[in-house]
Structure formats: structure tokens, C-alpha cells
Amino acid sequence: CNHASLEDHRSERSHDSPMSITVTSSAAVATRGSQGCCSGWNRQTPAHTDLQLPARRDGLPDSAILLEPRATNTGENIRFCRELLRERWGDAVDSKTYIVVQKPFMEKRSYATLLKQWPGKTPRVAVTSPSISFMDYPDAHVSREAVVSIMVGDLQRLQLYATPERDFQAPVAIPDDVWAAYEGLVAAGYDGNVLK
């Protein structure tokens, strides 16, 4: 994900409507009243640095940017962002609407994790990602093989993290043909991000 994740959504914000953004180590949440945006992963710089730039360029003052650098995984991103937002809005934090912007292949896992990890009433939320094709996703920082391994690991987590032993996210149905492809990719050596 890159600056486009915030820039793509800034047109939704009217300049007379207050907006806040929470930026974490690997995700960001921006919201104004009943709309918002959440963004993730940049391969070159920490998200809390990378995602502040377009927000500031769009005129968002530093006082509206809440930094959350502690998160080390998706569940912490959600819980820690909610803590910061609750400090700002109190109980109204659960009545807001959020747009989660994540890696293209992590949309389902982000939503499933939010359903399980957001304490209290689940807010209205939409999940989206930058429009990047699989062919265009690899770059000088992340090889095609690394992207496949990351995708394989994320698919495994969709199943594994919803088990009673882990219980990190809500269950997600994985079609049999998709799981068969997962198994084939693991057998072919794309297991660098698979949990053992």
C-alpha cells in the first residue's frame, strides 16, 4: 500500500467536516463523523511516517493525526487504534463508520479480525485496497515469490486464526478449490510465511 490509499479517499472528505486520522505501525484509521479510512503496509517506510505525508499535504493539521506506533499485528492495530479513538470520542467511537484500506490480499482477514478484535459494539466498516494487480504488485522491495508466500501465509491465517485455539478473528469460508491451491503452493515451496 502507498500514499494512494489516503489520497484515493480524500475526495470523500469535505473541508468543512472535521477529520482525524490514527496512524499505527502498519495501519491507519481516519474518520470524520460517519465516514473514514484505514490504510496499511508500505514496503519502504514505516506506516506512521509514510501515511502522515498525504494527510498533511491534504491540509489535515497535526492535531488531527493520532499516532499509534505500538501495533505489531492486525489485531493490535484494531485494538490500539480503537483505544486512541476512544480517548478522542469516548463511547461515540463505536457509532462511527470506518473504511479499512489494506493490502489487496488481506481484505477478508482484516474484516474478520476487526469483527473479533474490536471491543464492544462493532462499528460500521467497509474494507478496500489500492487497485493493484498481482502482476504490478511486486517491485524492487518485494519479489513476486515473496508476494506469493505472503498471500499463502495470509490464506492460512484466514483459517487458522478463526480456530478455537487461536480465536483471533471471525470465521471466513474458504472454498475447497482455493484451499487446494493453497496446499499446492505450500508443496511448491511458497511456505515462507506459513505458520508451522
What does this structure look like?
It is a single chain. The protein has 196 residues and is of the alpha/beta class. It has 7 helices and 6 strands; from the N terminus they run αβββααβαβαβαα. It has helices at residues 4-10, 47-50, 52-57, 74-89, 107-117, 144-160, 176-187, and strands spanning 20-24, 27-32, 35-40, 65-68, 97-101, 124-128. It has a 4-stranded mixed sheet with strand order 3-2-1-4. The longest helix is centred in the last third of the chain and has 17 residues, at 144-160. The radius of gyration is 17 Å and the shape is globular. The two termini are 27 Å apart. The model is unreliable at 1-17 and 25-47 (pLDDT under 50).
